[in-house]
Design brief:
By secondary structure, the protein is an alpha/beta fold. 44% of the residues lie in helices and 14% in strands. The chain contains 16 helices and 12 strands. The longest helix is centred in the C-terminal third of the chain and has 26 residues, at 429-454. Bound molecules: nicotinamide-adenine-dinucleotide.
Length: 484
Amino acid sequence: MAKTRKRTVENLTEKREHSFFGDVLKYFDHAVQFLDHDPSLLEQIKYCNSVYRMRFPVKNDEGKIEVIEAYRVEHSHHRQPTKGGIRYSIHVEQDEVMALAALMTYKCAIVDVPFGGAKGGIKVSPRLCSVGMLERITRRYTTELVKKNFIGPGIDVPAPDYGSGAREMAWMADTYATFYPTDLNAIACVTGKPITHGGIQGRTEATGLGVYYGVRHACSYKEDMDRLGLEVGLEGKRIAIQGMGNVGYWAAKFFHDGGAKIIAVSEWDGSIYNENGINPDDLLAYKNENNGIVGFPGSKEIGGPGAALEVECDILIPAALENQVNSDNADRIKCKILAEAANGPVTPEAEQTLLKKGVILIPDIFINAGGVSVSYFEWLKNLSHVRFGRMEKRYRATMNHNILDAIEGASGSKVSEESMNLINRGADERDLVYSGLEETMINAYDNIRNRMRDTEGINDLRTAAFAEAIDKVAISYQNLGIWP
Ligand code: NAD
């Protein structure tokens, strides 16, 4: 029988030691020391352009009215539309949404996605709400966005985030379309939709896959791995993950399939450990059936939700929420690489402790950008009204087949059937999305790493990433002709 959930996930989130947006401002201030831009331009970039706080009434399942608090923040309009997910959590607050919107601006700049940053939040616990109530809230929230011009394919394009997914995006797209029934591009008003409603193959796993590509590439630098006392590559690397939601599960799956070993995982109900490795698919099935991960066969419980963060491992992946590695536990973190799959999981104070220990900290504004990269592909697909690969898949398959025939004819030797099948096929939408994402993550990591290497005084990837992003946003503003 499924466990009853005595504590809600939200109760587990400790109070922040700082303002999250304040943390982002600190990173900004630190990075701009290494740039040479007009102070007024930097001020324009630093703060949020539009903050929309709303309250709206929704009838609950008992027919009583509940007033829901929600937000949409557009941080920067240097490029439009703005873009960012919608968080469903009882802990949503303005400071958090502002911080996440600002991170989106920098994230988009780092992966060359031509959007400004935005974020939304609805103060509700999705796990304690019926599906009907969630739908009513989501549709009303969308209506509020429409009324104030905070949504549209060329204005502001939401996506899923913590607590939301493809289902919520389908409700939003449908609500938007009822207001603009003749808009051919209406479906591009949100991304992360189900495939049947204009979504794209590969979006669901995009953030976890991006984490995998980014970390795998980071582990390909011999000098960096030598410094950590690690081998190049992912084979056999020991990984701990916090959160088995969308990002955590997919990251775990790709690392597992890529030869790494998931030794520890935490969820709302506690942390589990198995030195021989945990199979992410089996764990997800167990979690879905039992409403938690504790008790997973072959693993031992090692403590509460924070315990997995403190195990000795090569790579630590916090994939739940912000403020998880903070000044309370930073001393006890024993990883060599930390990849911020969640947004803001490490506080600035904790980061200093980790850097002193020599940890390579791969920042959120780069490593979790896979979601927005593939959202960009989805938006492009919606605007072009054609599936990626549709026009050329068969043509390429035939071409490859003809080339193989010609090679076989000229060389007189036969290509094995396995190679034949591999070469013969043309790329479908998922192949193209994966390849576009891999290229994006590898390029972006190299840009950040090069900036760190080439800028005197920058010794960490986060400062390098912020400098890289702010520089790009500043140049974009300059190209608009407003600043010299
Ligand atoms: P999700 O709701 O699918 O999963 C989050 C999981 O974390 C849930 O299973 C929850 O039970 C668990 N959790 C909550 N508190 C925990 C705790 N204290 N310890 C352990 N587990 C805990 O959310 P998601 O979409 O996977 O997002 C996770 C993080 O990744 C968020 O910070 C989000 O902003 C960030 N992110 C998500 C995307 C995306 O595409 N979904 C993109 C970029 C960044």
